[in-house]
Structure formats: structure tokens, C-alpha cells
Design a protein that fits this description.
Length: 587
């Protein structure tokens, strides 16, 4: 049977999308006339001519060149109550989910967790339902990661599993549609559609608003994709839907993309350039989360502390960005805008009983005003993620990190002087291009010198498109990478255990999350430093209601006296239920 294959360039107008962007569809169409019986063999020429005629008639009603030119003008701020018109080739009814059930799976970082909530918010408004049962899903969407090869291989393996599910789908049921969302869709693009014919939809990190349209196109049996990156998409007007109704904490995305262009990193190519949400929209989201009873928010961004809101014209002539001492950037110094210190100040004022965290920062963006705020505000957690990546200045230069080992260590000392008792975590890469045994030894020594409370360590995985891929050689053998990684992990655990054991005998404030995964008689929560704390589920005093005995519930603050510590967990016994305002943590 002949098929008509088309690749269309479709311009979305401002009438049905918040920003003018070009989206592409890869359509594989096999047209058949419903008027023919199953025993009739259709004429291929007539079938192809009919398909062309139908397709041409749809294009005739589509956008003209003048329509594109009008759409190219500067976008106006759209009222949230404004109803968008459908694209010219789809009806409003075709864009509706009609209560089809969506199953979402999330892989990778916290940004992907937040992206899942954004995607679901958009689909929910279009009439889709959410299901946690894979077997009853009409649409399966995988929110993917591309940071390492292993992360992508996990998705390929998952697609093979889902292929069997799609094949078994009864003809009497709505056809099962499968979509790849996020960084892997952005990196591989049409390679996914060509390699896995069972994938119906691709949507990059900046295309989640387009999901209803993409799924509508997929319903006709075509493959659809939008993998364009945006210079301004932040989803500021999309209120993420919390995926766990019993959650005590939430992620709030404040900026997207990254301008650092570290040689090893794929993020600038999968999530685009840095752009920040308006402060007002972030504060509104935090207030709503507070009203819902959540007790902790984590401000998210690929380079969260380089936040710069330029939406307020009066602040665009502000002074240049302050960097950590001894640090440089790979781009020109940015001028103006409301900076991270301003945002952190405002967010911490929304609810004194709500803890504030942020991740993932870059060490270059820790001016004293940020450190001062963390020190002063009780509800800003005294925990800083400080990604080092390597302990060798030579390797750091090859990575284009913008600092030396000496500058990094000086920053660590400065932070600890500013914020006594601060908990530090870091990222490290084992076996980067050209890393010698001496470079590795220097990374081991940095782990011992700083003595982090938490760490995230990985063997180097070269990614296409990165600067390292084009300019450096992945010359460290895999077995050497793995051996060095194991050595780093061993040293990290030794030092983290020592660091965490200083908490033994201390009384710490813990936000209760729920039952421990390993014991039905224990509860677990996290302390100010984001370490997991395990303690028995026992009756305790409520300091705000003297004489009342209570059991801790998720979302409660409790004081726990620490009795033992490992590299990853603290254990203790609970003293009382309290509030963040009334509590104090002492050794």
C-alpha cells in the first residue's frame, strides 16, 4: 500500500499559543476510504489523490503569509481568562482530551518532576484524566533525561516494554498513544520517531503548551513533534498540579535553561538559554502552595542562583551581577534585573512556617547578600549545594567551570564563616576527558578537605553536541572511570559519616514526611540540612498545647535528638511537636 509522507512547517499564531514559534510535524499518513468494504482493494492512485485533495483543502483554510507576518510582532501579555482559538487545521473539539486517561512517568532531575506537573496541568485543562494504572491508560507520556547515556538507555528499554502493551491493545479500545517529553526528545528529535515507530508524540521542554495539539494530531494516526527551544518560555502562568496529594513539599521552577556552556554538559542544548520567571508569578505560586498547607518549597533552575527577572522595566538599569570572589563566567556580565537575593528575600517572607530550599546553583553566583539572607532567615535552610565537578584546577579549566580549586576552597571557607553549621553537598565527575591519575588524586583530596554531608558522583558520559564532544577526546578507559568512581564514593562515604556524626547528641528540627520505607514503626523526615532522619512513631508533647500528647503526622515539625549517624541517614528519638518559629536547634 502506498503512503503519503509529508513534513510540514506550521506557524502557530498568537491566537492559539502564548508565543509565536515554528513547530514541525513529521506525518506518516496511510489514507483509506471508509466507504470501501474490507474486501475491496483500493486503487493506490485514487487513494493518494484523495489524500492530497483532503490535505489541500485543510491547508487552504490554514494560515497565510500575512498571518505569519502579523504573528511575528511582539507578543502581548495574554489574560489568563482568555480562551485560545484552535489552530486552523484543527477544531476545538479535536483539541479536547474527551476524558482519555493519561499515565505519566518521570525520569531524571527535580526539573523533570516539575515539568511533569506543568504538563499535567495543561492536559487537565484540556479534558484529560490522570491515571496511576498503566493498563488503563489511553496516553502514556515519559518525561525523560539526557544527562548521561545510561539515562537514555533506560528510556529505550522502557519503550520496548511499552511496545508489547501497545500491540496487545484491543481494536475495540481507543488506540494507545505514547509520547516522549523533555530532554531526550529535544536531543534526539526525529531519531526517536525513526527508531521507534510506536512513538506518536515528541515534545521538548519548551513545548508542553502544545501537547493538546500534538495529541490531537496523533489521534489521526500521524506522528507529531514540537522540539523548538524558546527564548522566553517559563510557564509563568501555568500553575503546576501537585502529583502527590499527601506531599509536604513542592518544587517551584523559577528559571529555565543555562548559559554556562560547561564543556561536558548537554543542558544548554536540551533546555536552551537562561530565562527567568517574573518575581510576581513565583510569589503567587508560593502563596498558593502555602494556602494548600505545604511546608517546604524548593526553588528550581538549571542555574538557579543566576536568576534575573527583567520583566520590571524600572530595574533594568540596575548594577552588574556580583560573582563569588575568584570566579568568572563564559559570557559577558549581565546587567540589570531583579536578582536571586531579591527573590529569596521575598519568597522567605510569604510564610514564616514554610521552609525554603533552592537547587541547583553554580558556585560563581554566591554573592555575600545571598549568604547573609540564608544566615538571617530561620526558614531558609542552612544547606547549600556547591557542585565542584573536580578537585583539579587543570580539569576544571578543561570543563570551563570558571574557577580554580583554590577559588572553590576559599568559597567553601567563606560560606562556613558566614553560615556556621551549614550543610554542604556537591557533584563530582570521574574520568573526564584527559583526567590523569594525579587529577583524580586531587579530587579525592578535595573530598577529604571539604567533608561534604551529601554527594552526587558519576562516571563521565560524553554527550553529542557538547563542546567536549567536538573539541576533546574521551580518552579515559571505562574500567578506569569506574575504578575512580568507586574510590570517590568510598572516600565520600567515609568523610560524610564523619561530618554527620557531629550531629549526634544534637536536637534538630525535622519536617515529617511519613512512614519510613524500611519500618512500619518508624517515621522519617528531613532536617535543615536535607538529611533523612529516622525516629520511632511514638506519642509526644505538643509544645503549643501543654499536656496534650500527639503522634506526628506528615507536615508536622518535630524536635528529634540525634543518637546515631551514617553517610546518608541520621537516627534519633522524638522529643516534641513544635513550629518552625518556636523551635531552636542546639548541639
Amino acid at each position: 500500500m502506498h503512503s503519503l509522507q509529508c513534513v510540514l512547517q506550521v506557524q502557530r499564531s498568537l491566537r492559539w499559543g502564548p508565543m509565536a514559534s515554528v513547530s514541525w510535524l513529521s506525518l506518516r499518513m496511510c489514507m483509506a476510504h471508509s466507504s470501501l468494504s474490507s474486501t475491496t482493494c483500493p486503487n493506490p492512485e485514487r487513494q493518494e489523490a484523495g489524500a492530497r485533495k483532503d490535505f489541500s483543502s485543510r491547508l487552504a483554510t490554514g494560515p497565510t503569509l500575512q498571518h505569519f507576518l502579523r504573528s511575528a510582532s511582539a507578543p502581548q501579555e495574554k489574560l489568563s481568562s482568555e480562551v485560545e482559538d484552535p489552530p486552523p487545521y484543527l477544531t476545538m473539539d479535536e483539541l479536547l482530551g474527551r476524558q482519555r486517561k493519561v499515565y505519566l512517568e518521570t525520569y531524571g532531575c527535580q526539573m523533570n518532576v516539575n515539568d511533569t506537573e506543568i504538563a499535567w496541568s495543561i492536559l487537565q485543562k484540556s479534558g484529560y484524566l490522570r491515571t496511576s494504572n498503566l493498563q488503563e491508560a489511553d496516553v502514556i507520556l515519559l518525561v525523560t533525561c539526557s544527562i548521561r547515556e545510561k539515562a537514555e538507555q533506560t528510556i529505550w528499554n522502557r519503550l520496548h516494554q511499552l511496545k508489547a502493551l501497545k500491540t496487545r491493545r484491543l481494536r475495540s479500545q481507543v488506540p494507545l498513544r505514547i509520547g516522549i517529553l523533555g530532554c531526550m526528545a529535544e536531543r534526539l528529535k526525529e531519531e526517536i520517531l525513526n527508531r521507534e515507530k510506536m512513538v506518536d508524540v515528541l515534545a521538548g521542554p519548551d513545548a508542553y503548551r502544545d501537547l493538546p495539539r500534538l495529541l490531537a494530531v496523533a489521534e489521526s494516526g500521524q506522528q507529531a513533534a514540537n522540539v523548538l527551544l524558546s527564548l522566553d518560555e517559563t510557564y509563568a502562568d501555568v500553575m503546576p498540579v501537585q502529583t502527590s496529594p499527601s506531599a509536604t513539599s513542592a518544587f517551584v521552577s523559577i528559571m529555565r535553561g543555562c548559559d554556562n556552556m560547561c564543556t561536558y554538559c548537554i543542558v544548554p542544548f536540551t533546555r536552551g538559554r537562561e530565562r527567568s520567571r517574573p518575581v510576581a508569578s513565583i510569589l503567587e505560586e508560593v502563596r498558593k502552595l502555602s494556602e494548600q498547607g505545604l511546608k517546604e518549597v524548593t526553588l528550581l533552575g538549571q542555574n538557579v542562583n543566576s536568576f534575573r527577572d527583567n520583566s520590571e522595566v524600572q530595574f533594568n538599569n540596575a548594577v552588574s551581577t556580583n560573582l563569588s570572589r575568584g570566579f568568572t563566567t563564559n559570557y559577558k556580565t549581565k546587567q540589570g534585573g531583579l536578582r536571586f537575593a531579591h527573590l529569596l528575600d521575598q519568597v522567605s517572607r510569604v510564610d514564616p512556617e514554610m521552609r525554603i530550599r533552592f537547587t541547583s546553583p553554580h558556585p560563581k553566583d554566591f554573592p555575600d547578600e545571598v549568604l547573609q539572607l540564608i544566615h538571617e532567615r530561620d526558614n531558609i535552610c542552612k544547606q547549600i549545594h556547591l557542585p565542584a565537578q573536580s578537585g583539579s584546577s587543570r580539569v576544571l579549566e578543561a570543563m570551563r567551570r570558571g574557577y580554580s580549586r583554590e577559588a572553590y576552597v576559599e568559597l567553601v571557607h567563606h560560606i562556613r564563616e558566614f553560615i556556621p553549621g551549614v550543610s554542604l553537598s556537591s557533584d563530582f565527575i570521574a574520568g573526564f576527558c584527559g583526567e590523569t591519575e594525579e587529577d583524580h588524586i586531587q579530587t579525592v583530596s578535595l573530598l577529604r578537605e571539604v567533608q561534604y554531608n551529601m554527594g552526587f558522583l558519576f562516571a563521565y558520559s560524553m554527550r553529542q553536541k557538547t563542546r567536549a564532544y567536538h573539541r576533546l577526546k574521551d580518552d579515559v578507559p571505562e574500567e578506569v572511570k569506574l575504578r575512580r568512581l568507586e574510590e570517590l564514593i568510598t572516600v565520600f562515604r567515609e568523610e560524610a559519616t564523619k561530618a554527620n556524626q557531629t550531629s549526634v547528641g544534637c536536637t534538630q528540627l525535622v519536617l515529617v514526611e511519613g512512614l519510613s520505607k524500611r519500618s512500619a514503626t518508624d517515621l522519617c523526615g528531613r532536617n535543615d540540612g536535607n538529611l533523612k532522619v529516622i525516629f520511632p512513631d511514638a506519642e509526644m508533647e505538643d509544645v503549643n498545647n501543654p499536656g496534650l500528647r500527639v503522634r506526628a503526622q506528615p507536615g508536622d515539625y518535630v524536635l528529634v535528638q540525634i543518637t546515631s549517624a551514617s553517610s546518608q541517614t541520621l537516627k534519633g528519638h522524638v522529643l516534641c511537636r513544635t513550629t518552625l518559629k518556636d523551635s531552636s536547634t542546639y548541639c
